[in-house]
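Class, carefully examine what follows:
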Amino acid sequence: MNFDLKDKTALVTGGSRGIGFEIARSLLNEGAKVILCSRKQQGLEDAAKALGNPDTLTLLPAHIGKPDQVDALFATIEEKFTHLDILINNVGMNLITPGIADLDPGLWQKIMDTNLSGTFLISRKAALMMRAQGSGKIVSLSSIAGRKATPGMGIYGIAKAGIEMMTKVLAAELALFNVQVNCVAPGMVRTNFSKPFWDNKELLNHVTAAIPMGRIAEINDVVNPVLFLASKGSSYITGQTLVVDGGATAI
């Protein structure tokens, strides 16, 4: 599939592994210049080796939940690239949490800082650049956990629901500047992150029983919709969340 992303400059957060890594790989294969961002330099270097250390890959470590590090990240991007065509908000973390009444506020803050506040801080800086240049694509990764209360994933779901509303607000604010802002909300995806679930046959059968297509998502099931929303093929689509769940939320 050709998404025509040649020479586009794309920033992928949380791109050193999992879905973010595969998004970065696909962007590179489509001819984009990719800025890979993650907290740990070693993780970025390992990812670069796995990607073959292409000349079109730049590694920039940053903790996206910390405003000063986000400011430094974008100062480097502005100096090195002068513009940014695509932002992929992929960073996220999930911890099994108790109910809200029993939750420690520190744990709430940790999950919110990484998922919601980090997406805000990065999107804000990208929006300033894209608004000034008169074009851009912002694509965030959400989850169907943001649409249905799920035991043990409540705080993660609240953060992801916030990302979907942020997508709508940003889309409305940036529409006249030719910047499209969208979101992809997967169900369970076969990654190392979710391996404890899909590697257990009983749990996997329980999960797939609720999916009309009868299987969980493979990584490319998520990557391709992200690339579509980052391409010119989606130029009249903004403020939307594309649910990628094999029909799980349709029933």
Residues 105-133 form the longest helix (29 residues).
